[in-house]
Amino acid sequence: MKFTKLHGLGNDYVYVNCFDEDLSRVDLPELARRVSDRNFGIGGDGLILIMPSERADFRMRVFNNDGSEAKNCGNGLRCVSKYVFDHGLTEQTTFTVETLGGTVTPVVSLGADGKVDHVTIDMGEPRFERAAIPMTGIPEEQVREEAIEVGGTAFTMTAVSMGNPHAILFVDEVKEEDVRHYGPMIEYHQWFPERTNVEFIQVLNQEEILFRVWERGSGVTLACGTGACAAAVAAHLSGKTDRKVTVHLAGGDLFIEWKEADNRVYMTGPATEVFSGKYLGEIPFK
Ligand SMILES: N[C@H](CCC[C@H](N)C(=O)O)C(=O)O
């Protein structure tokens, strides 16, 4: 099976171009687990499929490294956008990509080499109701700066959906050990029936956020695009930041704007192609 490795600020996935590879009979969650393994497989935070779509120019399917399928992936969308342009699947610098969380409209920007250097994506409108996250409790209720206690420690949390769930925790100081210790406790917290991504954010000033993430289904990653969007929205709602912020992730910076005019969140950042190859491991079939 042919694949390409791309990453968005170090959030790296194994990409398969399903215009070339027929994976219709493949056990995709098991394939994701196998190719994501950094010792016995190719290595990555998961598997992303680039597919034809009946309602958009392309379709993206995202599988975390535990095999669970996600509804959206911001870093993945930037890398899909780079792949389809650089590999000639489109000559347009803007197009549409269908995801389980909705259809988005990337705009690619080219470098001196004529290849995609960075991408701006309209990631759509954030959702806050418990039913949309999803969270247990009163369906139309929102969760803003509420206490959540895990492991004997209480955090202040705002819940945001960007098509996928995010528990945004406001902390005075972001600590890697806290991400690893409390991240899985919140990912599997009883309030989140479909689990959740967990973001630890330290507001530096009106225009900058320090950000670390424990991703649902992948654990600690160097970056999370949907998480950065959710964090920017939660921070603005708290009155701590402007609508335009730079989010400092472990793998680099994303520029997020939550526009007042259309209530939509715009994410701008890089996408990098690392290598391509042929996976020789056994393909698991359904
Ligand atoms: N772990 C996420 C999917 C990947 C999102 C992240 N890598 C991004 O860039 O948005 C979830 O299960 O919702």
Automatic annotation (TrEMBL):
UniProt-listed InterPro entries: DAP_epimerase_AS, DAP_epimerase_DapF
Active site residues of this protein: 73, 73 (proton donor), 224 (proton acceptor)
GO cellular component annotations of the record: cytosol
Catalytic class of the enzyme: isomerase
Database matches in Pfam families: DAP_epimerase (PF01678)
Keywords per UniProt: Amino-acid biosynthesis, Cytoplasm, Isomerase, Lysine biosynthesis
A GO BP annotation: lysine biosynthetic process via diaminopimelate
Key word Isomerase present: yes
Catalytic reactions of this protein: (2S,6S)-2,6-diaminopimelate = meso-2,6-diaminopimelate
One term of GO molecular function: diaminopimelate epimerase activity
EC number per UniProt: 5.1.1.7
Domain of life: Bacteria
Binding site for substrate: 11, 64, 74-75, 164, 197, 215-216, 225-226
Subcellular location as annotated: Cytoplasm
Keyword Isomerase on entry: yes
Record-stated family: Belongs to the diaminopimelate epimerase family.
Name of this chain's protein: Diaminopimelate epimerase
Gene expressing this chain: dapF
